[in-house]
Design a protein that fits this description.
The complex is a heterodimer. Chain A is mainly beta. Chain A is built from no helices and 30 strands. Chain A is 0% helix and 55% strand. In chain B, a hairpin with a 4-residue loop joins strand 17 and strand 18. The chains are: A mainly beta, B alpha/beta. The A-B interface holds A 18-20, 22, 38-39, 62-63, 65, 81, 103-105, 107, 123, 144-145, 147, 162, 181-184, 202-204, 223-225, 270, 289-290, 312-313, 316, 332-334 and B 1, 52, 54-55, 57, 59, 61-65, 70, 72, 74-75, 77-78, 82, 85-88, 113-115.
Chain lengths: 341, 449
């Protein structure tokens, strides 16, 4: 075992915002990193060196809530407690479009994989706009506030709330599939073939469905709420938070039902965020106490710890750069920390 | 990384029109220097300043297991989770629920959701009651009953619209339903802020530091009359009544506000703790002393009072004035003095509300194993009907006092201070619907060593 490989992650750059860093994202080439904070500020940094390209304060009254960077073009979108969706030009502090969705919190925003549509949710309704900000469709009310949304690789929009996950046609908004379960679903992870949908649930369990068969299963026994979920690229491994160990379920063969998961032990407190890399079986996990760990899971399902990082406070989110050569962590104190991998 | 102190949260319940917004504004306008966030489920017409106000639609999340104690409020989880992400934390959070809200899921959210309980501490549940309308509401809706059953403090508001006697009756009825709650009267929600905030009602060791009991007192007197008197001699006259004797304390310099009445009521409890001095008719009653008036003889009889300065006096009597037609008479003139203010204190014990309190108080030690068995049986069978419980226990073989509290089936017990030379005893209070007091009492007694 090489002692150096268990050492600290190599810091690329780090900055501190005025308030908790809530949500961010890399641009497609990894040249820029955009982030919003709890005070409602937006900042764009140079992805390689961390130099500030531009920043604006108080763009969302009451605070920003979410951001999504366009998958190919130089733009990104933010939403906030002011019920607004703003589409920004990445390189200049100019807004392309400001949409007043309504009164309430716009808690989610996400560009479709092809970049032609942008989805957001406010209270019980999901709205989809064109890339230029024209409304394409909206849903009728969900049965409760929409907790999260996610696009499948096939261009369907998945929405979760208390009691159900729905799959809607991205272009028309028509309902494709509804999966019900009496519990509050707080997060979604989709396998790359869009067949498996896993949801973190309020009652400290992970609920998942195989969409082709409609069969569902539940993994319970988590000491904390497993909000953090991530599938690896092949869709064979599902990493979940909800405890001090990152729990990795293997979907190959007959699994994960009846199998024991991998438990990646290092963190001393609840895992708050975790994410598989874009191209390999590397996993980064972040914890309530600010530790960040990089893991590698070998083809024979053996985990190795590659390095450890530390940020100032609870890790809010983690983002792999599209080329997997860097990871960004956002924390509660407003820190944006980037490690070179 | 330091562990920041948890942010206290007060839940404000009460029917629409009971004065929640007024109280909210009172709290916010006091110069307390705190950063307060308000989460509202009911859109108030009154603007609220100096605070972050978040409107949230009530969303109740039940879980697939059907367990009532897993029912939480999704709107609170969402809003509170977001609030705690701010670097500059709020010092205090107030949650104003709708008049129809069930307080159970609201309270349970602070125990069931680890994300929330790691950052917030439920401080107390305050229920506003419109004194003028409560009588109708209590009969008609489960929600208003449950809001009282869950309350740590009941603000009996709009007392100017109800009669004194009516208020006493309402207070008695509330007290029967919830013997742990503190009742404060107000006209325009004008209660001191420290009676509703920072109660530590769910932090029992702290609560016990302040007062060594969870029970609000039941007074040994039923009635108080306040009279304005001048120097000279007076008589208290009694007609024939249902009892051969009556305990009494006459207080001097008695105020006539409800808070004055209560302050002296606490004092009188201490006077009453001493044996009453026996007084025969036509003898003089000493002031600020527990006396036992002998009323055994037939017909009307009177006792003397000597007043040395102009003041108000308070008669804290074991029975109501009505039962004996008690009258204060200025000697010589034979003029009947009317009371400035009157109120009754004691529970009538004839309520028919389904919701009530059970208090079990026992000296001695309990066997831990038997107690666990009994409690899990009680919570398993009756958890849905038990709204709140609190208490302390003397566990055999342990030098420490154990404190516990719970909401429905959620039960939280922990060792507190050492008993040292305090007498070892147990106090358990349950507030719930259709609880069988005899059965509960018997069940607990079987746990005693």
């Amino acid at each position: 075992m090489n002692a150096q490989s268990l050492g600290s992650l190599r810091t690329g750059w780090s900055v501190t915002l005025d308030d908790c860093a809530l949500s961010g994202g890399w641009t497609s080439e990894g040249n820029e990193f955009a982030v919003v904070d709890a005070a409602g500020g937006v900042s764009v940094f140079d992805g390689k060196r961390g130099d500030l390209i531009w920043a604006k304060k108080n763009v969302h009254d009451g605070g920003a809530l979410a951001t999504s960077v366009h998958p190919s073009k130089s733009k990104f979108a933010t939403t906030g407690q002011d019920g607004r969706l703003i589409i920004w030009n990445l390189l200049e502090p100019d807004t392309e479009k400001v949409i007043d969705i309504g009164k309430g919190w716009a808690e989610n925003v996400s560009w479709s994989p092809d970049g032609n549509l942008i989805a957001t949710s406010l209270s019980k309704t999901v709205y989809v706009y064109s890339a230029s900000g024209e409304e394409v469709w909206r849903t009728s009310d969900h049965q409760s506030t929409v907790s999260t949304i996610a696009w499948t690789n096939k261009g369907e929009l998945a929405t979760a709330c208390y009691g159900q996950v729905q799959f809607l046609d991205g272009v028309s908004g028509n309902l494709i599939q509804k999966l019900e379960w009496k519990g509050s679903l707080v997060s979604i992870a989709l396998s790359s073939d869009s067949d498996i949908v896993a949801c973190g649930s309020q009652d400290n369990s992970v609920h998942f469905w195989r969409r082709s068969s409609g069969k569902d299963s539940k993994m319970s026994g988590y000491p904390f709420k497993p909000s953090a979920l991530s599938f690896n690229k092949k869709g064979t491994l599902l990493a979940t938070g909800g405890s001090e160990a990152a729990t990795v379920w293997n979907f190959e063969g007959d699994g994960p039902e009846g199998t024991s998961p991998l438990e990646l032990d290092y963190h001393a407190d609840a895992i708050t965020s975790l994410l598989f890399s874009n191209h390999s079986n590397r996993l980064v996990s972040g914890c309530r106490n600010g530790t960040v760990v990089l893991w590698e899971i070998s083809p024979n399902n053996t985990p190795t710890k590659l390095g450890v990082g530390q940020v100032a406070d609870t890790v809010a989110e983690l983002y792999w750069r599209p080329d997997d050569r860097a990871v960004a962590a956002l924390d509660r104190q407003g820190g944006v920390t980037v490690w070179r991998i | 990384m330091n562990t920041p102190q948890k942010v206290p949260v007060t839940i404000l319940t009460g029917f629409l029109g009971s004065g929640k917004t007024t109280l909210l504004n009172r709290i916010l306008s006091e110069e307390h220097g705190k950063r307060i966030a308000v989460i509202e489920n009911e859109y108030g017409e009154v603007g609220i300043d100096q605070a972050l106000v978040i409107d949230a639609e009530e969303e109740i999340f039940e879980m697939s297991n059907g367990c009532i104690c897993c029912t939480v409020r999704g709107d609170l989880i969402r809003v509170l989770s977001n609030l705690m992400k701010r670097r500059d934390k709020f010092d205090y959070v107030l949650v104003e629920t709708t008049g129809l809200a069930d307080p159970g899921p609201v309270a349970q959210t602070f125990f069931m959701d680890e994300d929330i309980s790691s950052e917030y501490a439920l401080d107390g549940i305050v229920t506003l009651v419109d004194a003028f309308h409560i009588d109708q509401q209590l009969g008609r809706s489960d929600e208003s009953t449950e809001q009282i059953a869950f309350a740590d403090v009941v603000v009996l508001n709009k007392t100017d619209l109800a009669s004194g006697e009516g208020l006493d009756e309402i207070e008695t009825r509330i007290r029967e339903m919830n013997r742990m709650t503190k009742i404060v009267r107000a006209e325009n929600a004008d209660v001191p802020v420290d009676t509703v905030l920072n109660l530590s009602a769910f932090n029992l060791d702290q609560a016990l530091e302040r007062r060594p009991t969870f029970l609000e007192p039941e007074y040994p007197f039923e009635w108080t009359g306040v009279y304005l008197v001048e120097p000279g001699n007076y008589k208290i006259q009694f007609d024939e009544g249902p009892d051969p004797s009556m305990s009494l304390v006459i207080t001097t310099d008695q105020g006539s506000d409800d808070s004055d009445l209560r302050d002296n009521a606490e004092k009188c409890v201490r006077y009453y703790a001493e044996d009453g001095k026996s007084i025969l008719p036509d003898e003089t009653i000493p002031m600020n002393t527990h006396v036992e008036l002998n009323l055994a003889s037939g017909g009307s009889k009177s006792f003397d009072i000597i007043i040395d300065k102009p003041m108000q006096i308070g008669l804290y009597a074991q029975h109501t004035a009505e039962e004996f037609n008690i009258q204060l008479i200025k000697s010589g003139k034979d003029a009947v003095v009317s009371a400035v203010v009157e109120r009754t204190w004691v529970a009538q014990h004839e309520h028919d509300d389904e919701v009530g309190s059970i208090a079990i108080e026992k000296d001695g030690d309990v066997d831990q194993e038997k107690l666990n068995k009994w409690l899990s049986k009680v919570l398993g069978e009756k958890g849905i009907d038990i709204f709140r419980m609190k208490g302390f226990l003397s566990i055999s073989g342990d030098s420490r006092r154990f404190v516990f509290q719970g909401v429905h089936m959620l039960f939280d017990a922990k060792p507190d201070r050492s008993w040292d030379d305090m007498p070892r005893r147990n106090q358990l209070v349950f507030i719930g619907r259709n609880l069988d007091e005899d059965e509960m009492r018997k069940g607990f007694e079987e746990c005693l060593v």
